[in-house]
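Morning run. Coffee first, then this:
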Amino acid sequence: MGSIMNSFKTGFGLGLGFNLSVVVFMAIGFLFFLPGYILFKKERDAGRKGSTTLIAGVVLMGIGVIIMGGFGFTMLMDGINNI
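And here it is:
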């Protein structure tokens, strides 16, 4: 019986650790994605296509998408199409 309980404890610990690591990577990626999206949106609304700030915003969004594991990919593609 003790062996089964140890297996459950180990499985629970691994599952919790994996889920917490995903949350940490999502938070770090969001810290890159959000400022990039704000820069991109501000420049796009001003009508300045191809500006350095617009491109920097898209690059920050790209870094955030990579760190977040693909979340926000459609917004990134929309940003690339608007350059």
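The radius of gyration is 19 Å. Good start to the day.
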